Amino acid sequence: MATTEEFILFVCGQIQGDYDIRYRKMFGEYMVYANDKPILLVCDNRVFVKQLPQVAELMKDAVRGVPYAGAKEHYVLDTADKKLTSEVVVLLERITPLPKKRK
């Protein structure tokens, strides 16, 4: 089951803060960007956060899952919790580098 456009719009609406939020469809699923930095992976109407030491404390109670076959395990973000979603995005935006330009 692919992510619905309604769900991706909901996820983007849950992010508070002064960010340029956009999403991009990739292989039938989505990547959410904050200030051009890839922050959240959205697959099958679930939001995945890369398991990084910096977010481990915030996501300690989160369910874990695999966004697609062959992927590493990620945290599953409860986007109904607007405060947690915003805290995770703030942290990830700060530590995530801008993608390198392709030649």
Produce a short descriptive summary.
With 103 residues, the chain is of the alpha+beta class.
Spell the H/E element sequence: HEEEEEEH
Tally of individual helices: 2
| Total number of strands | 6
Shape descriptor: globular
The fraction of residues in strands falls at: 25-35%
Structural class: alpha+beta
Show unreliable segments: none
* Major sheet: 6 strands, antiparallel
Termini separation (Å)? 34 Å
Helix content: 10-25%
Radius of gyration: 13 Å
Instruction: Please state the average pLDDT score.
Output: 92
Strand order across the largest sheet: 1-2-3-4-6-5
3D architecture notes:
This protein is α+β, with helices and mostly antiparallel strands. 23% of the residues lie in helices and 29% in strands. It is built from 2 helices and 6 strands; from the N terminus they run αββββββα. The chain has helices spanning 5-14, 82-95, and strands spanning 21-26, 29-34, 37-43, 46-50, 64-65, 74-77. A 6-stranded antiparallel β-sheet has the order 1-2-3-4-6-5, with helices on one face. β3 and β4 (46-50) form a beta hairpin. The protein is globular and about 35 Å long.
